Amino acid sequence: MDNAKILYYRNEDDKNRFLELKKLLSENLNNSVFMYKRVLEKLDNAMKLYQTMVFESKMYRIRTAAGYIADYLSDIVFYLNKTYFKDWRNGHITELQKLKYLPHNFIEYYAAIIKAKTIDEIKTLSFLLIDVTRKFISNHKPDIKSQEMDVDYQGFADWYQELSLTWRRLRFYCDTNNAEQAFDDACYLQNELILVKDEYGIEIDKVDLLGYFNAEDLTYIRKRAEELEMYVIEQIEKNGVKISKYDTIDDFLKKN
């Protein structure tokens, strides 16, 4: 639509509507925060396809998945260059070659997927394509200020309060050297942190919890969990939201 020309319109309303949409497209492409969200959606689609592909054994299904993965990832590269795939007649690779910024070896991996003859080749190349794109995304993450993100800090507080028992339970299992239960709760917390990190603006270096897990020494993950919990509390409270705290069950029942 961005480079489209009006050849015919029924009335001025139709013309103005088209021009408004064209303007909106241009504004969106230049809104790094908006486009970054679209980028993450595309990456999520590609990774879900790859997870399905890993367990596939039929070549036609493998190639279909790889094709869509390459398409999703190509869209990401276009978006981060503040453009989109404009001319289908040229094909993705030709259009990608025109871009200023590209993931390392992206075009080479894309071309290799097309030429690949075995299932293992396609799976490996699809992984590599995703891997270099993820690094590319990380290097092009916009400087998102809290006001730009419009973070719902009350929602953030509610999320934390729902998980506060899990944090306490994890500390208890670490203190009692119960590696199995500590692992279960750490997995749950880790998944939650991954799910909400973008919604609530959690810094990427404040997401890693399970990287500190050692079944033979739970002090590392206990300390890390405490650090992450304190970080979450600080982010909520410094933005004017009070976290509800209760000393006893009776205190909780009186206030709820």
Quick tags:
single chain, 256 residues, mainly alpha, Four Helix Bundle (Hemerythrin (Met), subunit A), 2 domains, 0% strand
Q: How does this model look, in words?
A:
The protein has 256 residues and is an all-alpha fold. It folds into two domains: 12-139, Up-down Bundle (Four Helix Bundle (Hemerythrin (Met), subunit A)), CATH 1.20.120; 146-255. It is built from eleven helices and no strands. It has helices at 12-29, 32-53, 59-80, 92-96, 106-115, 119-139, 146-149, 153-175, 179-196, 219-237, 249-255. The model has no long low-confidence stretch (mean pLDDT 85).
Beta-strand content bin:
under 5%
Mean of residue pLDDT values: 85
Number of helical segments with 4 or more residues = 11
Q: Could you tell me the radius of gyration in angstroms?
A: 24 Å
- One letter per element, helices H and strands E, the order comes to HHHHHHHHHHH
Model regions low in confidence, pLDDT < 50 over at least 5 residues: none
- Specify the structural class: mainly alpha
Shape assignment: flat
Quickly count the domains.
2
N-to-C span: 53 Å
Short description:
The chain is mainly alpha-helical. It contains eleven helices and no strands. Helix 2 (32-53) runs antiparallel to helix 3 (59-80) and helix 8 (153-175) runs antiparallel to helix 10.
